[in-house]
Amino acid sequence: MQPKSQSLKALLSGNAELRQLTATARELQQLHATVCRLLPESLRGHCLGVEQQADTLIIYMDNAANATLIRYQQRQLLSQLANLRRSCKHLKVRILPPAVPPPAPKRVSRTLPDPVRAMLQSTATGLEDGPLSRSLRNLARRRSPRP
Q1: Given this model, what pLDDT does residue 144 score?
Q2: Quick one: pLDDT at residue 143?
Q3: Which of 6, 90, 128, 136 could form a disulfide with 56 if both were Cys (CB 3.0 to 4.6 A apart)?
Q4: Residue 7 phi/psi, 5° resolution?
């Protein structure tokens, strides 16, 4: 007998820790949206996230140049947040390093067994000289084992 499947909403609302985590994520998302609305258009896409610790707002930017521009607008940003009833007295700007790409996959040597290569060659020989016969010959040649 298979267990009864539940909706994601039921799973999230059934666990107190998950409810709290969801609420915190929602608050951070709203704060991020609010801060992005207050930023100049040119900087909105560079704001990677925000968080509030006590009376300090921390803004995470993608590079140092954009972080510097935010620091120049610190007073204006804090007063705009105060007008929106956000209790932030200090502003810190942090730079998140770019995500490190995963290592490139190792190249797999792809060779064809000798009988398959021979079949491709014989099929190409039996065809009129054209794109298909050239492709079959190239495939057989490229997939041969390297000396």
Answers
A1: 61
A2: 63
A3: 90
A4: -70, 160
Backbone φ/ψ region at 101: left (φ over 0), alpha (ψ -120 to 50), beta? beta
For residues 135 and 143, give the distance between their C-alpha atoms in angstroms, rounded to a whole number.
12
The whole-number average pLDDT for the span 32-58 is 92
Pick the CATH number of 15-95 from 3.90.1570, 3.30.200, 3.30.300, 2.60.40: 3.30.300
Q: What is the pTM of this model?
A: 0.59
Please count the residues of the chain: 147
Residue 66 CB burial class (10 angstroms; 0-12, 13-18, ≥19): buried
| CA 59 – CA 49 distance, rounded (Å) | 6
